[in-house]
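As a warm-up, study this chain.
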Amino acid sequence: MNAQLSPEFQVTERNTLSVLGRGMSVAIKAASRAAMGVHAGFAQRTGLNMQFTHIDGRFKQSAPGPFDQDYMKALFEFGVRVAKEGSAFRRNPFERSPVVTAERR
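Now compare it with the structure written out below.
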């Protein structure tokens, strides 16, 4: 999954299309978070070592627009850094701080 799942404040224009679009966005994020919770619960119950990663609050830069090259490079470098540190993954997708150390094979 490659999407932002955290709630974000956004003023919606007062027309049918904008309200419908915002409602769909909120519903998709909620369904995605629920699916991740179901997968995490299944992994825990069955002893499966499932790990999740996401871009957390340590990455401070915001994208000025879609496919911004500077933003994408900074995001990639952030991912490489936290992967090397071993702090990119967690067993529970809703935990705020990383708790899983990367295993090298």
